[in-house]
Amino acid sequence: MKFVFFLFAIMFFSVSVAQKHSLLQHGLVFGDRPGTTAMVDASKLEAYMDKKIRISTTIRGKVIKVTKQKGGWFNIDAGNGRIIAAHFKNYGINIPAGLQGKMVIIEGVAQKQIIADDLQHFAGDTVTGKKQHSLKIDPKRRLTFEVKGLMVE
To answer: Which of 2, 9, 37, 108 could form a disulfide with 147 if both were Cys (CB 3.0 to 4.6 A apart)?
Structure first.
């Protein structure tokens, strides 16, 4: 009887350990499967966007930090000390904290943060004679990315 209990305990332990190691295997997908045909490296994303403020694309990069597991909030290294703040479009997707340090391929919409002239809201005054507020790119050059799909590389 003790032998059967011991055998059952070993099998249960091995199954639970095996599941933890297989959580982030190559090819694991969260959300929609990203297309890899026109992929851009995360460090070259800003140059790829050029003067565009918003663009749909697929990027490849390293996850620096998972900020919130619920809703899939994480940061990607964009090179030269810059960060791409990414989150899933579908808030119902949860990502594991073990994603930190992994290379991922993500597909979605990249957007440069904009600020209004004189730190005013970008709607601004439109009355004639008042100063018109123009949109400028944030000097910190922070990029955001709304993710439709993520695949662990």
So the answer is: 108
